[in-house]
Recover the amino acids of this structure.
């Protein structure tokens, strides 16, 4: 079950977010983590790939980093961490984000579909962050911007767009 912010808050997240660290991104183009990262990049977000398996390689025009602690300051602010890890690993990622990115503009922790860690979410909220669990930013962005409608999905959004 999707948990977290309402549509107004989701719109605010997308409006304020410029750079997203995607933890667990894959170089395999058929993996959801790859096409979500690619989609977000195509929508104008800067995507910083994080995966120790590809550390030092290039992906989607950016260097891949092994973990959040390794993100250099010259990348600028990191607004969101998008977690493509199993639920039992999400807490460690959230703790790393809190330890290394709070002073770098972090405002949002986003846990992908199927990723739920209520204790980690509470730690992030206590630090002042917005938390989304068990949702996908690609799907939410498409839903809020009317893109899912083109595929025949009932989005619950009223629009004059055809």
């Amino acid at each position: 079950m999707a948990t977290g912010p309402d549509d107004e808050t989701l719109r605010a997240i997308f409006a304020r977010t410029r750079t997203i660290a995607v933890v667990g991104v894959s170089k395999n183009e058929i993996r959801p983590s790859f096409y979500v990262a690619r989609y977000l990049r195509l929508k104008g977000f800067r995507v910083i790939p994080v995966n120790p398996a590809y550390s030092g390689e290039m992906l989607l025009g950016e260097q891949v980093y092994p973990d959040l602690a390794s993100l250099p300051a010259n990348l600028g602010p990191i607004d969101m961490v998008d977690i493509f890890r199993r639920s039992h690993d999400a807490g460690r990622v959230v703790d790393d984000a809190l330890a290394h990115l709070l002073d770098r503009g972090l405002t949002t922790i986003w846990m992908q579909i199927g990723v739920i860690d209520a204790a980690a979410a509470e730690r992030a909220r206590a630090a002042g962050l917005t938390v989304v669990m068990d949702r996908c930013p690609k799907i939410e962005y498409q839903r809020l911007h009317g893109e899912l409608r083109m595929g025949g999905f009932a989005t619950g959004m009223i629009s004059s767009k055809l």
About this structure: Residues 87-100 form the longest helix (14 residues). The beta strands are 19-23, 46-50, 58-59, 62-63, 80-83, 108-111, 130-132. Residues 151-155 have pLDDT under 50 and may be disordered. The first strand starts at residue 19 and ends at 23.
